[in-house]
Amino acid sequence: MATPSQQQIRSRIAQARTIVVKVGSSSLTSATGHLDVQRLTKLTGALAQMSMLGARVVLVSSGAIAAGFGPLGFPARPTDVATQQAAASVGQGLLMAHYESAFGRFGIRVGQILITAQDTIRATQYRNAQRTLERLLDLSVVPIVNENDALASNEIRFGDNDRLSALVANIVRADALVLLTDVDGLYTAPPSHPGATRISYVPDVLGVLDDIEVAGSGSHVGTGGMVTKLEAVHVATASGIPAVLTCAENAGPAMLGDPVGTVFAPVKRRGSSRRLWIAFAASPRGDLIVDEGAAKAIQTGRASLLAAGVVGVDGEFSAGDPVWISNEQGAHLAKGLAGFDSEEIPPMLGANSSRLRKEFGNEYAHPLVHRDDLVLV
Question: How far is CA 7 from the centre of its chain?
Fold first, then answer.
């Protein structure tokens, strides 16, 4: 298949029926860390324009902690988790109040969705989030999604909403993802470096990563950086969703397909939402280690993982949890959903279906990971 041109990808974004827009804390706050209502209102105007043109818009918005620590009397973003969570609890309400007011000027209703990483691990929570988002969009409501910072800990986070926005794009089967940050695109090196130039088009995000230098968060109010944004782009483009990265001031032109920021082409056709969830939304809880024969069978993409080919199990997980499938050298081959709890598996290792049925009963004579629940790395 021929590589699409930059113009073709930007046209796809301009014609998107469902679009997910992510805005970071640094794009919504002033230099002192307070919520900048003027910035928020300007962004809302661009999103409202797209909505009134017929697009279904989902906004993934950071800013709860940044909006909350000022009113609580802190001169800068707190560094301890408990205070960050308290600031988020205060700030989320302030953030939503301003969004409701700003969108309300255009007669557009908004709905709040708070998500933690745990909400995307189990298939039931994932489907619940999917149903709610789809219904809000059907009702012409703009869902405003944020990580539930009041409950999320540093150990279990998405990464400044960048990865979350790509997963939300996956959930709603979006036609485009727009990442808004405090720089106007991807550069060959940090923009402050001499000679750094903006990259306007990336046909394959994996191919460009070796040729550029990226930095972590440069903001005192945000937690992400260019690395997390490129990871989000990878998730989106591998899901068949084109993406554009630019500054918040360029939100309108970016959604209309104008040549601003950096646009990223999809690297493959969109797969089923279930397989995309397994591949990107699910964080593995353990590891099933397979022998050489099982490794070869798994890599064909057509075989389930049977107990007969498994030589070890690592970690603690429950049936339905995501797990890695790795070879004996430790290389990850696939990700899948476990068919059994981790403590049930050791006695089953190496046994064929007949032996499992005889020794443990019919309910144990099925794969440790079914092929429909398995995605190759």
Answer: 25
Tokens of 52: 């009134």
Give CA 158 to chain center in angstroms. Answer: 7
Dihedral angle of Cα 3, 5, 10, 16, to the nearest 10 degrees: -40
- The domain segmentation of the chain, as residue ranges, is 6-276, 284-376
Beta strand 310-315 with 18-23: parallel, antiparallel or unpaired?
Answer: unpaired
CATH of domain 284-376: 2.30.130.10
The angle, 0 to 180 degrees and rounded to 10, between the axes of the packed helices 81-104 and 37-52 is 50
Cβ-proximal residues to 145 (8 Å cutoff; 6+ apart), any chain: 58, 59, 60, 61, 113, 114, 115, 133, 161, 164, 165, 168
* Average of per-residue pLDDT across 313-339: 92
**Phi then psi dihedrals of residue 316, to 5 deg:** -115, 125
What is the four-CA torsion angle of 294, 295, 300, 304, rounded to 10 degrees?
Answer: 40
Q: What is the pLDDT of residues 36-57, one digit of tens each?
A: 999 999 999 999 999 999 999 9
Establish whether domains 6-276 and 284-376 are of one fold: no
User: pLDDT by residue (tens digit) across 353-362?
Assistant: 999 999 999 9
As a whole number of angstroms, the distance between CA 150 and CA 147 comes to 9
- pLDDT tens per residue across span 85-142: 898 899 999 999 999 999 999 999 999 999 876 676 667 788 888 999 999 999 999 9
Homologous superfamily in CATH for domain 6-276: Acetylglutamate kinase-like (3.40.1160.10)
Read off the pTM.
Answer: 0.82
